[in-house]
Write a structure and sequence with these properties.
Layout (H helix, E strand, L loop, with lengths): L2 E6 L3 H16 L3 E3 L7 E6 L4 H15 L4 E6 L1 H4 L1 H7 L4 E4 L7 H9 L3 E4 L19 E5 L1 E2 L10 H5 L3 E2 L2 H12 L13 E5 L14 H9 L6 E4 L4 H4 L3 H8 L7 E3 L7 H7 L5 H14 L4 E8 L6 H14 L3 E6 L16 H32 L1
Parallel strand pairs: 1-2, 1-3, 3-4, 4-5, 5-6, 7-10, 10-11, 12-13, 13-14
Antiparallel strand pairs: 8-9
Helix pairs in contact: 7-8, 10-12, 13-14
């Protein structure tokens, strides 16, 4: 038996992996502690999307290696940053890819025995029906697939997770039932009120099984109970293929009126360079149709500022697009080259230009948030 501290980084799916890791280890007799100082083993459940996060994780790895604690790295970095991690690998340390977390108990036993463990093969592992320890007693997450069908030039997640592997909708539906009822007491005493459906890209869910996200949502909303579903990120490339069917199912009261469609740039030239496989016109059609059919829906998007081939004109197009669509939620990232991606081979823009553009776009977004807030205030008064 060991005391284990788990540190999670990254997306909702990665945090769900962390909950699964905690659940498996608890059932194996280990103790999950909240203070790193109390631990024998540290598990860093890593993210490889942003350089700033990767650098933070490497600093934490150095900190742990200066102690007598054993260390296991899970998440995306064991594959996306494998060459760098291999140089740090030593006895009593493990590297475990996201496709191998069900084997975490065996890995822990190996590092306790001061062995060196590397599990970075891309198994087709279904992450349903596994034990979980979830810190939030109101909101639970369920992964519906692994990997994606996109080939974005900037993305290290694809390198780590690979091609799409969708989980059968029948199994997902059964998992939802467990969370919202008292059927399985180890999940919750009274049932969760909100379920997040998450994955690398929800929009391409089911394409490898002969159906799509709408087919899954139809089955989920038919489940009896007092709960709401939040649908995770879906790329516009695939969303546009069934947009009208998706809008109809979104009208169901059990679907949270929130949609996350990452645009990444307001320039068609840059979208083509990024291999995003959608145009600005197609993206705006998605946003406008959702807002027309579902008044009050919150639209979230992601934008990368300073892609290597982004010109001032490309950036101006992004700013104008943001001003037109006035997103309720917008995640702005400064481009940073990620190891192994095609974009890393391009000549990078000057850091001060990227920073300047990021500041300008952030200021535009802050003005929009304030404007949206004032509109909501007026609506409350009118009602």
């Amino acid at each position: 038996m060991a005391s284990i501290y788990i540190e999670n980084y990254g997306c909702t799916a990665n945090y769900d992996d962390g909950a699964i890791i905690a659940g498996i280890l608890t059932e194996s007799g280990h103790i999950i502690v909240k203070d790193i100082e109390e631990s024998d083993i540290v598990i860093i459940n890593s993210c490889a999307v942003k350089n700033v996060t990767v650098n933070t994780i490497f600093r934490q790895i150095e900190n742990v290696n200066e102690t007598n604690k054993k260390l296991i790295i899970t998440g995306c970095m064991p594959i996306a940053e494998k060459s760098k991690l291999d140089k740090l690998l030593k006895k009593g340390m493990g590297l475990v890819s996201t496709q191998n977390i069900s084997k975490i108990s065996n890995v822990v036993e190996s590092v306790i025995a001061n062995e060196q463990v590397v599990l970075t093969n891309k198994n087709k592992e279904t992450k349903l029906g596994l034990p979980k320890i979830i810190s939030d007693k109101r909101i639970a997450s369920i992964q519906i697939s692994h990997g994606c069908l996109s080939t974005c030039t900037f993305c290290s997640t694809k390198l780590a997770k690979g091609n799409l592997i969708s989980y059968p909708k029948e199994q997902i539906t059964e998992e939802v039932k467990k969370y919202i009822t008292e059927e399985v007491k180890k999940y919750a005493d009274l049932g969760y009120k909100r379920i997040n459906l998450t994955s690398t890209d929800n929009a391409c869910y089911g394409f490898d099984l002969g159906y799509n996200l709408v087919d899954l949502l139809k089955e989920v909303v038919s489940i009896e109970g007092d709960f709401i579903i939040r649908v995770g990120m879906g790329n516009p490339e695939h969303t546009r293929k069934y947009i009208y069917e998706l809008i109809e199912i979104y009208k169901n009261p059990k679907i949270m009126k929130f949609a996350h469609f990452p645009v990444q740039s307001g320039s068609n030239n840059i979208l083509k360079e990024m291999k995003r496989n959608h145009t600005i016109e197609e993206f705006e059609e998605i946003v406008n149709q959702f807002r027309k059919e579902i008044p009050g829906i919150s639209i979230s998007t992601d934008i990368i500022v300073g892609y290597p081939t982004e010109t001032e004109d490309d950036f101006r197009q992004t700013v104008e697009m943001v001003k037109r669509l006035k997103f309720e939620v917008m995640n702005i990232s400064k481009f940073a080259s990620r190891t192994g991606t095609r974009a890393s081979k391009l000549k990078q823009l000057k850091t001060h230009d990227i920073k300047r553009r990021s500041i300008e776009l952030t200021n535009v977004y802050n003005e929009i948030k304030q404007e949206n807030k004032e509109i909501k205030k007026r609506l409350v008064v009118l009602n």
